[in-house]
Amino acid sequence: MRYDLAVIGSGGGAFAAAIAARRKGKTVVMIDRDTVGGTCVNTGCVPSKALLAAAQARHIALEQRFPGIRTGAEPVDATTLVGGKRELIEGMRAAKYVDLAAEYGWEIMPGHASFRDGPVLEVAHTEGSTIRVEAEHYLIATGSTPWAPPIDGLDQVDYLTSTTAMDLDTLPTSLLVLGAGYVGLEQAQLFAHLGAEVTVVARSRLASAEEPEISAGIERIFTDDGITVHTHTTINSLRSEPNGQVMATLTDSEGQRRTLSAERLLVATGRRPVTDGLNLDAVGVKTGPRGEIVVDEHLRTDHPRIWATGDVTGHPQFVYVAAAHGTLVADNAFDDSDGGGVDGGGVDGGVGRTLDYHHLPRVTFTSPQIASAGLTDAQAVEQGYACECRVLPLEYVPRAVVNRDTRGVIKLVAEHGTGRLLGAHVLAEGAGEVIATAVYALANDMTVQQMADLWCPYLTMAEGIKLAAQTFTRDVSKLSCCAA
Fold it and tell me: Is there a contact between 202 and 208 (Cβ–Cβ < 8 Å)?
């Protein structure tokens, strides 16, 4: 069986590459040993955000934020909630993956693929047969999977991951969350808003990749939500008690030891690339220290006909990065501009497309959200910039005031002298939408003065970016309500 492109995996990067290749008239086969659609639609973005939205609706009903408005919420019917989530996933998987592949005209082959010299793929089909697949180009898009650190006793505990936690038909009364990156924060607040007693243990601060002001702000918000937070703390050992409780022994930064217990443990300490069973050594494809496939800036591995995209490359673990990778690989592998035939210019250089990550945004879907793009203050200094920063509390953003929730900040990092924006960091309701303004500013090398002078509709959270830019030259506490 011979194709122009053989794709291992069926997530966002895999589908983007397959669609781009089919639009170029290339033949494609996709091989996947798991559920079609990959992490995002099945166990990642879609199910987690669907459950977070539901939990936030319940939390708002209990919050009593507005005078004169009284609301309430009954205990959660977890079985029905999770059932609705599964129905949503099945619908999106069919419409955006299975049916789409059929419409574009490529086969999705269920089975386990591994490389053999050639290169060729040997596919152990789920029906029991073994199929040999040859292609002009191969794409590895196998993604990543939750990773657990080596903790004494962890292997004896029935712990949850971000994948299994979202399939619980019964909500735990208490939950211990190990890890405070975006997954740990989202999952901790999700279960807290659904009614569980939640404790978070972090080796550093919460959201340690973000600005310190963001970390401090989200910690205050978690405390407001009734979530117990232990920062700069290490879990030394774990054990299961006869009553089913999980017992954890911790040590904080001052050497103080304590013991915590919870009904369930959620391990959210990061993800690792999935490369097991691919037999990469047979084709000379190298992996890095975290198991990631080593690629060049064009996403080509050490073998000129084998490419990789998304989480498996160790690049930022976002589905929109994987999708951009997939399209890029198709362009680089199948460029015909030099008249190279089926190979195109991909093997011999191709169009040589690369991606610019300097304005890449990221969002943590807590409530309020955390969103960032560009450099942090510390990263800018490390890269040799002389920086000038401003931090705007949300009490100066009219939208936050009328929403009666001023918990949060907006921080802008600019180059001293030129005023060019280097980074933007937001902790606010709708921060994921707000950060788009900063992405455009970063992509176009705008200065904070230019941002301060732009039109912005009043009583939007995005106006906070304009106000933060204005703080470089004026005292916004002395502005009228329209931030002119």
Answer: yes
